[in-house]
Design goal:
The complex is a heterotrimer. Chain A is 76% helix and 0% strand. Chain A is mostly helical. Chain A has two domains: 64 residues; 30 residues. In chain A, α1 packs antiparallel against α2. Helix content of chain B is 80%, strand content 0%. By secondary structure, chain C is mainly alpha-helical. Chain C has a single domain, classed as Cytochrome c oxidase-like, subunit I domain (Cytochrome C Oxidase, Chain A, Up-down Bundle). Helix content of chain C is 63%, strand content 1%. The two termini of chain C are 44 Å apart. The chains are: A mainly alpha, B mainly alpha, C mainly alpha.
């Protein structure tokens, strides 16, 4: 019922491919971070900058979760917990932010 | 289906956990991480609601040193890469490789903490403490707890490293290393969110 | 390729020997841990009940002087904290511990040592809270502890006990949630799909999800307050940019799911007891599971109904009024399903079933007053009055406690191998039922008449005296009922464990085991092919099929470490309280080191060789 929880490639070719994927993701993460910093440093206006920054962060988070943390290819139950947690977190943080700034 | 019950006795001569469903611990850590999402959500929500209240103290825009924090972020992101390479080495049964990557991860984690510590020290000297304002309280609590999570992660990596050096790697310990890596990635992911919502958003349009 | 060291340790052939009290302190067995939860909960209930009686005596007449105002504040605060955190939650978690693994056909929980740690954090954390009475005063700002009243400027050391004590017990509870989520999701017997689980296990599953997401916000809230009190953090300090609503929001984001955490397992108990004593399957099983899930989901969307009077504005109030009324719908579905289960059943009246039956109207009354409070304009009148006190006692006592007492009488033979005397049980039931209603029903009217909550006395001439006196009389009737329960315990334990394995002709798996339940629960894990598999097997005149051949069973070793970790953590709590910062830090490090040692320790466990019962399970 519960197979090997993370798919470990066994063939050398697959292992090399996996390593390449990891390096690519790592490089992409660094690039996305620098892109985000660039958005700030370049002085892009707030109404445009904030959604862009959030979008970049979302991409980073999903990449890390699905690829580095092996959500892709693992039990769906892990994904439900993770995405459930993230969605609840977004809801909670937003409500908290709004409800506190409401007063005075 | 029926082999699962056979697992109960597969571990007759092995540590107990081998007899239980293999992924109890992995499911456990994912569940724990979902709870941690709620924990950090509360801290982040509190920060977002309070960060404009600076009393007479400095603001984030004034204090945040973007180059410094960017480097710290890149360091932590690199540590995510090193840990996943360590796990891959482990899965190839390359114990030496795994150990090297884990040492690197711990080192990068420590560097990150150094950067954080330096940042806290600088802010303190520029008049921002936990007591200065609601912003100060929220900032130090949020980043401080994240830092504590990183510190615990470093400690955990070192523990697993020492255990692997003394006892080697078996099936159970591979699970433990994998779980630690999930925790580590999560802490990194939280930092990406903090970096975006605290530092970058704090400096945008200023 | 580097070599992999295959050094694995062999299991012991027998359990390490612990005797007497040490066996209990070192136990990692879910059944023993469940018993300890229940005992501790009943112990704390005596204190919570005493606090309640003191409150009722003080409120007997106007301008009474039995308790000073300060003492009154401490008593009603501790009454609330005790009953919710040290009685309701632990007794329900005790049942979950004792029964859920049996219901799903498992031999223990996923993480037995962490389970023990949860228990000891609760027991020692609760005792820590109570020492506050002797160390400068108990918390006195209400169980919800609002800032700024609970800040350093307006309150004493009692609040530190609150912050630290609840943090300690709360961490334990979170561990329980992770433990049982993994247990229920991963360790069900072969063939037990989710929709074949007993309803109590369903309620446990959903409750644990609630705990997982609701406890972190209170953890953060308590941290913010502790930092405020210890290090002058400004979260709730308005002068320097803080916001008192932050406390309230985080508290109720936790607090509302919390009350569902304490009611859902009671729903689960009722869903077990009623079908058993009506000899009918639960009506609408799937809708019951769905209702539990919807209730849990909605419970995160209603919290601001505790804050209608905070001036948040009509939009916010309207949204949360609507969601709060919505949550009555799935709850109503459950009520109708229980009634439909009873309809056409052969109802047996034992103490357990009477408590479960009484639960229904009492909880409905509490629910109705709740919907009344959900209407924001009405709430502006009723908020902070005795109407609210009536409402939550009807749901918490009429709901949770009645359910818990039903569970106690129902599962007593499974847990302790004896049956509580049913005659005394019925005396207990009627005195509790009557006493409860006499105590709390008048409070609806007191609230409508304008009597505020949390006042230590009231002046004559308001017309409140008579109803207060009625309420106090009711409290003493309740006391009589509980003393009868105590007496029942005493005489029942004076007997040997003589109960049969299946005294109620039960439906679920926990009744398929012999009495007393062996330490390993199931000699052979069962193969489940139906809902209510045990009942089906009984109807077909056969034992439940086994999913595996008989053989030696690998059990986890007992360990004193969880107890000592909890002791260390509470020690650190005292150090923090006394502002001995270095001591607190050192003890916390010591606790972490002990935890780390447990993480790297590879338990060898030990073997048991079960006797396969006669006429035993088929292969």
């Amino acid at each position: 019922m519960h197979e090997e929880p993370f798919l470990a490639p066994t063939q050398p070719a697959e292992q090399r491919a996996q390593r390449t994927l990891y390096l690519a993701i790592g490089a992409l993460s660094l690039a996305l971070t620098l892109a985000a910093v660039f958005i700030v440093v370049a002085g892009i206006a707030r109404p445009l900058a904030l959604p862009l920054l959030i979008a970049l962060a979302v991409v980073q988070v999903l990449m890390q979760a699905f690829l580095f943390m092996h959500l892709r290819g693992s039990r769906h139950l892990y994904t439900y917990f993770f995405l459930g947690g993230v969605m609840l977190a977004i809801l909670m943080a937003s409500c908290l932010m709004v409800l506190i700034q409401q007063w005075a | 289906m029926s082999t699962e019950s056979g697992l109960q006795r597969a571990g007759l001569d092995a540590p107990l956990e081998l007899g239980l469903p293999k992924d109890n611990r992995i499911l456990g850590i994912w569940i724990f991480l979902a709870g941690e999402c709620a924990f950090f959500a509360s801290l982040i929500g509190g920060y977002l609601g309070l960060h404009m209240n600076v009393a007479h103290g400095p603001t984030g825009a004034q204090l945040f040193d973007l180059p410094l924090t960017t480097i710290a972020t890149l360091i932590l992101l690199s540590s995510s890469l090193t840990v996943v390479l360590g796990v891959a080495a482990m899965q190839r049964r390359d114990v030496r490789g795994m150990q090297i990557w884990l040492w690197l991860t711990a080192l990068l984690g420590l560097f990150f903490l150094e950067f954080q510590g330096y940042e806290f020290y600088t802010f303190y000297n520029h008049g921002l403490t936990i007591q200065t304002s609601a912003f100060g309280s929220a900032f130090f609590t949020l980043t401080g707890f994240h830092g504590l999570h990183v510190a615990f992660g470093v400690f955990w990596i070192l523990l697993l490293l020492f255990q692997s050096m003394r006892l080697g790697i078996n099936e159970e310990r591979t699970t433990k290393v994998f779980i630690m890596s999930l925790y580590w990635h999560f802490v990194d992911v939280v930092w990406v969110v903090i970096f975006t919502l605290v530092y970058l958003a704090g400096k945008v349009g200023s | 390729m580097a070599a992999i060291t295959e050094r694995v340790a062999l299991a012991h052939e027998s359990a390490p020997a612990y005797h007497g009290i040490w066996a209990w302190l070192a136990s990692v067995d879910h059944k023993k841990i469940g018993i300890m939860y229940i005992y501790a909960a009943l112990f704390f209930m005596a204190f919570g009940g005493f606090e309640a009686l003191a409150i009722r005596v003080q409120l007997w007449s106007p301008d009474n002087h039995v308790l000073t105002a300060q003492a009154f504040n401490e008593f009603f605060t501790m009454h609330g904290v005790t009953m919710i955190f040290l009685v309701a939650m632990p007794i329900l978690i005790g049942y979950v511990n004792a029964i859920v693994p049996l219901q799903i056909g498992a031999r223990d929980v996923a993480f037995p040592r962490m389970n023990a740690l949860s228990l000891w954090l609760f027991v020692l954390g609760g005792l820590f809270l109570y020492t506050s009475f002797m160390m400068g005063g108990a918390p006195d700002a209400g169980w919800f502890n609002y800032a700024p009243l609970s800040g350093a400027a307006y309150s004493g050391p009692g609040i530190d006990f609150y912050d630290i004590g609840l943090q300690i017990t709360g961490i334990g509870t979170l561990m329980t949630a992770v433990n049982f989520l993994v247990t229920i999701l991963n360790m069900r017997a072969p063939g037990m799909r989710l929709l074949r689980m007993p309803m109590f296990t369903w309620s446990a599953l959903i409750t644990m999800l609630l705990i997982l997401f609701a406890f972190p916000p209170i953890t953060v809230d308590l941290i913010m307050q502790m930092l405020g009190r210890l290090f002058h953090a400004r979260f709730f300090d308005v002068a320097l940019g803080g916001n008192v609503l932050l406390w309230q929001n985080l508290f109720w984001i936790f607090g509302h799911p919390e009350v569902y955490i304490v009611i859902l397992p009671a729903f689960g108990i009722v869903s077990e007891v009623i079908p058993t004593f009506a000899r009918k399957p639960l009506f609408g099983y799937e809708s019951m599971a769905m209702a539990l899930s919807v209730i849990a989901f909605l419970s995160f969307m209603v919290w601001t109904h505790h804050m209608f009077a905070d001036g948040l504005g009509p939009i916010v109030n309207s949204i949360f009024a609507i969601t709060s009324m919505l949550i009555a719908v799935p709850t109503g579905i459950k009520i109708f399903n229980w009634l439909a289960t009873l309809w056409g059943g052969q109802i047996r009246f034992t103490t357990a079933s009477m408590y479960a039956l009484a639960f229904i109207p009492l909880f409905v009354i509490g629910g109705v007053s709740g919907v009344m409070l959900a209407m924001a304009p009405a709430d502006l009148q009723l908020n902070d009055s005795y109407f609210v006190v009536a409402h939550f006692h009807y749901v918490l006592f009429g709901g949770t406690l009645m359910g818990a007492l039903a569970g106690l009488y129902y599962w007593f033979p499974r847990i302790w191998g004896r049956i509580l005397d049913d005659r005394l049980g019925k005396w207990n039931f009627w005195l509790v039922f009557i006493g409860f209603n006499v105590t709390f029903f008048p409070m609806h009217f007191l609230g409508l008449d304008g009597m505020p909550r949390r006042i230590s006395t009231y002046a004559a001439g308001y017309g409140w005296t008579f109803l207060n006196q009625l309420s106090t009389i009711g409290a003493f009737i309740l006391l009589a009922g509980m003393l009868i329960l105590l007496w029942n315990f005493i005489i029942t334990f004076a007997r040997k464990p003589d109960a049969v394995a299946d005294p109620w002709d039960g439906r679920s798996l926990e009744w398929s085991l012999p009495s007393p339940v062996p330490e390993y629960n199931f000699a052979q894990l069962p193969l489940i092919e139906d809902r209510d598999a045990f009942w089906v097997a009984k109807q077909e005149g056969r034992p439940i099929q086994a999913a595996e051949p008989p053989g030696p069973i690998h059990m986890p070793s007992p360990s004193l470490s969880p107890f000592f970790i909890a002791l260390t953590v509470v020690g650190a709590g005292y150090m923090a309280l006394l502002h001995i910062d270095m001591g607190a830090l050192l003890l916390m490090i010591a606790a972490f080191v002990q935890i780390a040692l447990q993480l790297v320790h590879e338990d060898r466990g030990y073997h048991v060789h079960p006797q396969v019962p006669q006429g035993g399970a088929a292969d």
